[in-house]
Structure formats: C-alpha cells, structure tokens
Design goal:
The chain has 373 residues and is mostly helical. Helix content is 56%, strand content 5%.
Length: 373
C-alpha cells in the first residue's frame, strides 16, 4: 500500500483499502470472445505441452536475456513504488507467483506481458513518466490480468507468427496462410485487451484513474487540457458517425492492430463498470479458479456468440445497422443499393402512392403465416 511519500518524482496518494478477490478465476473479468477461446484451449489435452515445445523456436530466451541485460528489473531496491504496485496487484487477484517486471528505456508509453514458461512484464520509461500512481496501478493490474489469464503464451506466439510472416513472404501462399492465422489471433488479442482493462479496474478500483490513464496514452501528459466526458464522446462519434465507406475504413484500420482504439477501450470499460457483472464481482460473487476445469466450452461459445450478436444489434455503426436490418428482415435492401451509400445512412423515402398489389392471390386461411426473418 502507498505510504504517502515521493517515489522517483511520483507523489503517492494516501493508502486505502482495496477489495481482494481470493481464488478468482480470470473468467470473471474476461470478455466473452476472449473467454470462449481460452476455455476451449484449456480443454485441449496436451495443448500447453505443445506450446512449450515451441519454446525452442520462439525468441523467449533471447527476450529474457535482453531485458535482464539492458533493462532495470523492478524490486524493493529499484523502482520500489512499481514493485509495491506489482505485489499489491498480485495480492488482489490472488496470483501466487509474482512475475518479474522490467523497466525498459523507451520514450513511447507501452507495457506488455510475454513468455511461455513464466510470464514477464515490461513497462517503458515513457509510460512510467506519463502516469501518476493510481493510473499506473491500473496498468500494472492490466498486465497482471494478462498473466492470470495466460495471455502471455498466446501473445508470444503472435509475435513469433508476425515475424514468421515477414520471413516467408517470398513463398507462394505461405504468407497468406500465416497472415490468416495472425489476423484471427489479432482479433482475439484485441478482445483480450478489453479483458485486461477490466482486470486493471479490479486492481485499481478507481474508474476515473483508468479513464485518465487511457486519455494520457492517447493525448500525452496534458491532463488539464483534457476531459473524460469529451473523450468518451469521441468514442460515441467514432462508433456512430459516417456512412458505409467509413465503416469499411474502420475495419481496415483496426485489422493490423493488436489493441482496440483508446477511446473504444475507455467506453467499453465504463460500460462494464456500470454492469451487473462488475457489481457481483465487487460483492464477492465470481467464478473460482478451482472451477475452471468444469467450465463448459459450449456455454462459453454461446456467450461469445451472444456478445457478438449484441454488439451488432446495439451498434450505431452504419454497416452494423445494415447487418442488423438484413438479419431482421427490415428495409428495402434493393432500393438502398440503388440509392448508393447515402441509402444506407439516410431515412428510407416514403412511397409516392399506395403499395403495389401482390402478384398472386392472398394466402388462404389454412396457409400458415410466413416467417420473414
């Protein structure tokens, strides 16, 4: 806990009690799409063994040696305030083994959790210098959440496959096959980032600090010039603005990314904090780690499918609204196509006259009604 002193230029806030979650399963905070993939992978017999066998091909040993030799390892003697946050985060999420953390000289604010056998956490000097203590606490909790979920393994594989795709680019169709896997992994990893944001909130237990941290990552250390509500309004404008062309551009922009856009992360986290799921966790009602082996793959995939369907149904994005309309049998698709892109964003014009008569006779009373969905 904080003692109210100064640590390397960071003023600590007065210590306060934070709720702890003994035995909590990562399923408690994972995004449904992230959770379904992880539950399925954990059910695969020998999956971890196969991944560890890949360790000879992956640059994990090289990365560990690199950070050990050219970064500063966090301890009670180096970056002590970060060491306190790390231990506190592991205590709150009940992670028995505290992963090693390194501070790497890099002006870009960033953090990651990688590793096959044992996860390691790396934060850059740019991030340490940018965030205050409570904001940094949420970031450390975010990375500990990655470790608890086992994301480090798949993140390492993603790094390897991305590197491999570059090496085999000259092989016909070789790069296409690898990039198909990379694209799928990136979609999963973007959802895993939303999961880790939730873990950061469970550790910091301060939504405003989490929001400020995301704003600073987007706009730098000018907090007096920024406003959380205005920042969230950007997410609303991004989600609902434009036409089908903008929807396509959004997809193309996000495909190469491993992280969702910052405003989207802020909006998603705020939405989760206001949910019943979050409140139940804070009240002590959450899935336990010792129940993970009994988790149903089918139920997890059902929840994931429901989450994606909910995103489409509630989305204000023009393309998602079109998909929802088609799925619901609403609107005259042919007429909208004839009117071009504006036909998908503007209101449907009223007919000039009465609707045309049907081509055939009306159905008899014995004919069951048709389902147009």
């Amino acid at each position: 806990m904080s003692d109210g002193h100064q640590h390397n230029g960071h003023e600590s806030v007065p210590s306060r009690q934070r709720r702890r979650f003994p035995g909590i399963s990562s399923r408690a905070y994972e995004h449904p799409a992230d959770r379904s993939a992880l539950v399925a992978l954990r059910k695969l017999s020998g999956f971890d063994t196969v991944f560890k066998a890949l360790s000879g091909l992956l640059p994990e040993r090289s990365l560990r040696l690199l950070f050990l030799s050219d970064s500063v390892r966090v301890s009670d003697r180096q970056f002590a305030h970060l060491n306190d946050m790390l231990r506190d985060a592991c205590y709150i999420l009940d992670l028995e083994k505290v992963p090693p953390m390194y501070v790497n000289q890099d002006p870009n604010p960033n953090a990651m959790c990688i590793g096959l056998d044992e996860p390691i956490i790396v934060v850059t000097t740019g991030l340490v210098e940018l965030l205050d203590e409570e904001e940094m606490r949420a970031v450390v909790g975010h990375e500990v959440g990655h470790a608890l979920s086992g994301h480090a393994v798949y993140r390492t594989v993603l790094l390897f496959l991305t590197s491999l795709a570059v090496r085999v680019a000259w092989i016909p169709l070789g790069n296409v096959a690898i990039m198909a896997i990379v694209t799928a992994l990136r979609e999963w990893f973007r959802k895993s980032e939303l999961s880790a944001d939730r873990a950061g909130l469970l550790v910091g237990q301060d939504l405003q600090a989490s929001m400020r941290g995301l704003m600073k990552i987007a706009g730098g250390n000018h907090l007096h010039e920024m406003n959380v509500d205005a920042f969230l309004e950007q997410a609303e404008e991004y989600e609902s603005g434009g036409d089908l062309r903008d929807s396509v551009l959004k997809i193309l922009n996000v495909l190469p990314r491993t992280h969702p856009f910052t405003t989207v992360r802020a909006a998603e986290l705020k939405k989760w904090e206001a949910s019943r799921d979050f409140q139940r966790i804070m009240d002590g009602h959450y899935p336990r780690r010792d129940e993970d082996k009994d988790a149903s793959v089918r139920d997890s995939w059902r929840e994931s499918a429901s989450a994606y369907a909910g995103e489409v149904k509630n989305s204000k994005d023009p393309l998602m609204k079109l998909v929802n309309d088609i799925a619901g049998g609403a609107g005259d698709l042919g007429d909208r196509v004839r009117r071009g892109f504006g036909g998908f964003t503007g209101p449907k014009p009223a007919p000039d006259g009465p609707p045309p008569a049907p081509d055939g006779p009306p159905p008899s009373g014995d004919e069951p009604p048709r389902d147009n969905t």
